[in-house]
């Protein structure tokens, strides 16, 4: 009789403990092998392939802050600048695929291998989520003689290579978007490289250039002050912030190109880990603290899950491969 009583007490205790456990938040999930994994149990490192203080770094830190409420462990940002992003991308790719190293990847990831500046390819990283996208835009000074993209391109055709377009450096995303515009329209520009988009915009303001093809975010303050005007954006649709600026597609030019930012992990990272990060990231993306930072920088908010982001990377990777081969830009 005593044995039955003890067994009964043990069963009852187990039921109580089980019910209590059900009420606790857990990060344990089932793996492909049927075993449960507990993730994360320590800080996650987010590699940013660019220097502190820039737009990509600011976005990464805002993302890390927004994730605090959606993961039991924090995300620490580590800047690994160099090689136009190649150093940081490579470090993230070669990290242990356990979910404790992620990388803030940008559009440069789809460009660098084709320029001969990196040995990785698009399949060396597993996408988690896309957080942002910004198209290229053709911007000129406020007193420029062109008020439409048609007038601008007509002049470019009539005066081959006379129009100087500034970019963020040879082989940079904004250099390639101007090159893509040449390919689509048959015009020829004189490409002037600068050490970043900001110096190129400064040169435009000083009348050392006729145009820039940087993102709207990088000329937003000058648009607000009336010192520049945007002739067209290279997006599928007009931007909500600039509803009066037409797309190239509206003018019969089938070109939609720009940059993006998102989160990736090493290619062999378990999908179960990716799913946890993806779910938390979707919630963080909606956090007011995150959206406020993005809007303050005038960056475009564009969320895509792992599959959607993979399609973006795959498409751009092939696009830039063909463009760089045609333009003989490989270094």
Automatic annotation (TrEMBL):
It comes from Sporosarcina newyorkensis 2681. It holds the Pfam family TctC. Belongs to the UPF0065 (bug) family. This is TRAP-T family transporter. The keyword Membrane does not apply. PROSITE patterns: PROKAR_LIPOPROTEIN. Residues 1-20 form the signal peptide. Keywords: Signal. The keyword Signal applies. Gene3D superfamilies: Bordetella uptake gene, domain 1 (3.40.190.150), Periplasmic binding protein-like II (3.40.190.10). Transmembrane segments: none annotated.
